[in-house]
Design goal:
The complex is a heterodimer of chains A (399) and B (379).
Chain A: E1 7-8, H1 19-25, H2 41-61, E2 68-71, H3 74-88, E3 95-99, H4 104-115, E4 119-123, H5 133-139, E5 144-148, H6 162-171, E6 175-179, E7 198-202, E8 213-217, H7 232-235, H8 243-258, H9 260-281, E9 285-287, E10 298-303, H10 308-317, E11 320-321, H11 337-341, H12 346-349, E12 352-356, H13 363-383, H14 385-393
Helix pairs in contact in A: 1-8, 2-8, 3-4, 9-13, 10-13
Chain B: E1 2-3, H1 14-25, H2 36-55, E2 63-66, H3 69-80, E3 86-90, H4 95-105, E4 110-114, H5 124-130, E5 135-141, H6 153-163, E6 168-172, H7 184-187, E7 191-195, E8 206-210, H8 236-250, H9 253-271, E9 277-279, E10 291-296, H10 301-310, E11 313-314, H11 320-323, H12 332-335, H13 340-344, E12 346-350, H14 357-378
Parallel strand pairs in B: 1-11, 3-4, 3-5, 5-6, 6-7
Antiparallel strand pairs in B: 2-8, 7-8, 9-10, 10-12
Helix pairs in contact in B: 1-8, 2-8, 3-4, 9-14
Chain lengths: 399, 379
């Protein structure tokens, strides 16, 4: 690695694993390596560790332990929820409602379902990334079997009105799934109070390990399996359990949800200082996402006249890890579907940057970004023909 | 501790655990991120992919990582079949194959389940007779997890290729990779499932070999990782651990195989000292050298398992996935023609190259004591 300083502003892509989480996991790699399905006592330690983790996940979201199923991650949980509900309830209807700003795990699962005879309505969002409850109600037909709306958006951080959506779904007797991968640990979640029937989460977004997630399935929900085989996870998700991962998920969710208020207070304070600094020091900058109803660690801004990819590269050279869109699509040249959905023109969407703060963020990191970022943006603008034209014309900018 | 249950899972090597730990602490970046932490993570993904590819002599680019063997099997089967297709498998496949097939049967796909002989080897004539115009897939396990029978994969592939050019071949190699030399190129396999935790790697990682040019539908769609064939943030620590484990097992693999064979041979020889037993996976060309299935007549396998546990010796009665449910009867042993009595008394000892002759002797001593006691109270 070049450069000594490393400022990690990409917590929404993935987080580091907390030492307490690692410590909890370690014994399950070494002395307690047994297959939890084996019947000797030595393996029962693994089995009970899984059940303990299940309790912790349940407690964190207000569910019962027997409503939690461990998966290989958030994408698997999303795919399972959508495909599983669709195929198990196709006798009732073939219509599913989601939004235009979902994670690709949802959007691509929907495309797959469209090829298999299902109809999908993709709800619009406003300029802040919020869905309209009216539009949702109007979209419901007597064929609607599922509403899947993300709890909080991964790119722009907007938090959707989940409780209100849950009420509508309950009233109309339709299953409600929410992709809460970005929300866990940042927003208080109570699946009973919010009338959520299915909820996806992933450990590596809240200081747990990669490769493990969970799907909450409310008791009584009719769903088909995604991965068939051995009778693990009460016959719903086959495959030898990733015990260290599951134990890590349990510990991480316990830590992440034990004191959300004070955690958020600290992060929001730093986030707002960073955001205010950026807006003050860099002209022609627009904040994307809802000004208040957004994830505590999220900043998403568009700088006119520059390319997000070049910005990312220069930031990286200065030791700042950030993102232009979601990590999974960073290889793509298309502007983010989320930024287009909130109405940004292509050229502005291209100049977007996501900074996501988290537990590793320190006050001096904010100072450092505020020192480095304006210089880099200026440097790129100085090289930009668009900026040159703009300066000559002197047009008024309303972004 | 004497651990003779290596077909259920293996103890991760120290080097593997260290690699997993290093990845979690140092290379925690999202491999898809453009910044330096992502780049470091991607480098390690590549190294792991190279090692896992070497395990079966595949092209690096033909390996995709999954969360494990069950997911690989589900992906291979569901990814290739559509309504109206016919598929051939066997009666002794792993549940992740059998249950997937059962599921798709309901969706209008026809399945032929081949019988096996007393050795647990599929009926080749039945295979020949079963291949049809619409046979899209033949899915056969390389080595059975309970009795260790080795399928004649080369012969099977030869027959399939000569009968129907459109038929694809999937091999579940979860129990064979790292234990038998595998060359997907010379075998001409289309799809092969692998698992990390059966070769001293971590749980929660597996792989699927997909021959170049073969189109399959993903089981998990989304962010487009793994060439759009398996979405989800890459589980770098476990994948990298898998890569390390593959590297270790490849190192002097011949010697490791010889070592395991010697352990089984010694065990079988010493079983001559027992009355009223039946070796269900003898030492011959049809059975692998790391699985020893023995019926102790007149004894319940489960009772024997718990008695051995008292001596800190760990074995299995069936495959671990189904071991818990007594309702979930063993389906493999009846297929090789075992009597009810022999099924009840069956115990599986499964070895790793880390096991020793001394451990075998200790287990034999324990077995003698236990059997003397159990058979005495029986009478």
């Amino acid at each position: 690695m070049e450069g000594k300083r490393l400022v990690y502003m990409d917590h929404a892509a993935t987080t580091y694993v907390k030492p307490e989480v690692l410590d909890a996991m370690m014994p399950y790699f070494t002395e307690n390596f047994g297959n939890p399905s084996s019947i000797y006592t030595f393996s029962r330690k693994s089995k009970s560790a899984i059940e303990e983790a299940r309790e912790k996940v349940a407690k964190a979201i207000g569910a019962k332990a027997d409503e939690i199923y461990f998966t290989g991650g958030g994408s698997e949980a999303d795919n399972w929820a959508l495909k599983g509900i669709a195929f198990a309830n196709k006798d009732k209807g073939n219509h599913i409602i989601t939004t235009k700003i979902e994670h690709h795990a949802i959007l691509h699962a929907c495309e797959f379902l469209e090829k298999n005879g299902f109809e999908i309505t993709y709800l619009n969002v406003d300029e802040n990334g919020m869905i309209s409850l009216d539009e949702l109600e109007r979209a419901i037909t007597d064929k609607t079997i599922l509403i899947s709306i993300m709890f909080a958006n991964n790119e722009i951080g907007t938090i959707e009105p989940i409780k209100e959506i849950g009420e509508i779904a309950k009233k109309r007797n339709i299953y409600f799934h929410t992709d809460a991968v970005q929300a866990v640990g940042n927003v208080k979640i109570d699946v009973k109070d919010m009338n959520i029937d299915l909820l996806s989460l992933a450990a590596h977004k809240f200081y747990g390990p990669k490769g493990v997630g969970a799907l909450y399935i409310k008791k009584g929900v009719k769903i088909e399996n995604l991965i068939h085989g051995g009778g693990q996870e009460r016959k719903r998700r086959a495959g030898t359990e990733n015990i260290p991962g599951i134990v890590g998920l349990g510990k991480a969710i316990e830590l992440a949800t034990s004191d959300i208020d004070s955690h958020n207070e600290r992060i929001i304070k730093m986030r707002d200082r960073l955001l205010e600094g950026i807006m003050e020091k860099i002209p022609h900058t627009k904040l994307n996402g809802h000004p208040e109803k957004r994830l505590p660690g999220n900043i998403n801004v568009s700088f006119r006249f520059i390319e997000g990819e070049s910005l990312l590269l220069l930031l990286d050279q200065s030791g700042i890890c950030a993102s232009t869109g979601s990590a999974c699509s960073s290889g793509s040249l298309d502007p983010s579907h989320v930024l287009l959905a909130i109405g940004l023109p292509h050229e502005i969407a291209h100049g977007s940057l996501r900074l996501s703060l988290g537990d590793a963020t320190k006050e001096e990191d904010i100072d450092y970004v505020l020192e480095v970022l304006p210089k880099i943006v200026q440097r790129l603008r100085d090289m930009s023909p668009l900026y040159e034209t703009f300066k000559h014309k002197g047009e008024t900018i309303n972004v | 501790m004497i651990y003779f249950d290596n077909s259920a899972t293996t103890k991760p090597h120290r080097e593997v655990v260290e690699e997993v730990l290093l990845c979690m602490e140092k290379y925690f970046g999202n491999p898809s991120s453009a910044h330096r932490l992502g780049v470091e993570a991607e480098k390690r993904m590549k190294a792991a992919r190279e090692n896992v590819a070497r395990l079966i002599n595949a092209q690096t680019s033909d390996i995709i990582f999954t969360s494990g063997g069950s997911e690989s099997n589900n992906t291979a089967i569901k990814g290739i079949l559509k309504k109206g297709d016919h598929v051939i498998s066997s009666k002794i496949e792993h549940p992740s194959v059998l249950k997937t097939l059962k599921e798709i049967e309901e969706e209008g796909i026809e399945v032929t389940y081949l019988n096996v002989d007393a050795n647990g080897v599929v009926d080749i004539n039945q295979l020949k007779d079963s291949i049809r115009e619409n046979t899209r897939l033949v899915t056969i396990m390389h080595v059975n997890n309970e009795i260790g029978s080795i399928q004649p994969i080369e012969q099977i592939i030869n027959i399939v290729r000569n009968s129907n050019k459109k038929t694809k071949i999937h091999v579940d190699a979860v129990q064979s990779a790292g234990k038998i030399k595998i060359d997907v190129k010379s075998m001409d396999v289309d799809l092969m499932s692998l698992s990390s935790h059966k070769i001293h790697g971590p749980k929660g990682a597996g792989a699927l070999y997909i021959k170049k040019g073969l189109n399959i539908k993903p089981l998990i769609s989304g962010g487009g990782q793994e060439r759009d064939l398996r979405s989800g943030t890459e589980n770098l620590p476990m994948i990298s651990g898998f890569g390390v484990a593959a590297g270790i097992i490849l190192d002097n693999m011949e010697d490791k195989i010889k070592k395991v064979n010697a352990v089984k041979k010694h065990f079988v020889e010493r079983l001559n000292e027992f009355d009223d037993i039946k070796v269900n996976s003898p030492i011959d060309d049809f059975h692998i050298g790391n699985i020893l299935n023995v019926s102790f007549r007149g004894i319940k396998g489960e009772v024997l398992l718990h008695a051995l546990e008292d001596y800190d010796i760990y074995v299995s009665t069936g495959s671990a996935c189904s071991a818990k449910k007594s309702s979930h009867k063993n389906y493999v042993l009846p297929e090789i023609g075992l009597s009810e009595k022999d099924i009840t008394g069956a115990v599986r000892f499964s070895f790793s190259y880390l096991n020793t002759i001394e451990e075998v002797d200790a287990a034999i001593d324990a077995l003698k004591k236990i059997l003397t006691f159990l058979r005495r109270i029986k009478k």
